[in-house]
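Suppose a classmate hands you a notebook page containing two proteins, each written out with its sequence and a corresponding row of structure tokens. How would you begin to make sense of it? This section walks through that situation. The first entry is reproduced here exactly as it would appear on such a page.
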Amino acid sequence: MPFGKYKGRFLIDLPEHYIVWYKNKGFPNGKLGKQMELVYELQLNGLEDIVREIRIRF
């Protein structure tokens, strides 16, 4: 995350309530917004552990 309270964290590691808040407010424009929207979908479907596992291996 490039700014705010969670600056420096991977997007996949953001708390679900934070991503849901952005979903309701509106994701930022551009690449960051698209990535956050993808994280929302991953968290919604319980798939964030797959991304974390990939991150650890590489």
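The notebook's second entry, a different protein, reads as follows.
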Amino acid sequence: MLEHMTGQDKKSSLKEQIDENLRRVYQDALNEEVPDRLKQLLEQLRAKEAGK
């Protein structure tokens, strides 16, 4: 398939694949649960800020 593509077509196809992979990784990261330890640290920071 790629042997019939021009240099520009190959670059465009590669760019589309990279874009799709980046979107998938970013979406996966958005869907990850925030670790409990990070939640605790954020709560501590909020409590400290509220106490000022």
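A careful reader of the second entry would note: The mean pLDDT is 90.
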